Amino acid sequence: xxxxxxxxxxxxxxxxxxxxxxxxxxxxxxxxxxxxxxxxxxxxxxxxxxxxxxxxxxxxxxxxxxxxxxxxxxxxxxxxxxxxxxxxxxxxxxxxxxxxxxxxxxxxxxxxxxxxxxxxxxxxxxxxxxxxxxxxxxxxxxxxxxxxxxxxxx
Length: 154
Description:
By secondary structure, the chain is an alpha+beta fold. The protein has one domain (about 10-150). Helices cover about 45% and strands about 25% of the residues. The chain has 2 helices and 4 strands. It has a 4-stranded antiparallel beta sheet with strand order 1-2-3-4. Helix 1 crosses helix 2 (about 65-75). It starts with 10 loop residues before the first helix and ends with a strand.
């Protein structure tokens, strides 16, 4: 008599294998999603840093062209921040932060950045500049701040 011996996996073994495999894939997907989110935040942080540095350089150039006018705007503005959501033209043209929404700064980037600068007179020859570039992403608000002290060199 011939006996047949069946070989293969039982239903329980297959279910355990599929369960372990699905846990692995869900974990891999979670790690990939978190990594992509962090990569996007870092990309926006780099762009925001560039916008903040550009604004600081513009303010330095504005200061160099007419220090007295620059000091007058600072004294009159006090601690009221200026909104710079477009390429700066003149310090007079910019509204305060209350009317400063999240807009594209260079026309090429997504409409997510808000760039502001606060000018505070420290003494007769120095101005404290506080620049902040903010953006919203995934329900959170991120910020890149830059602080500098500008002086008149005579």
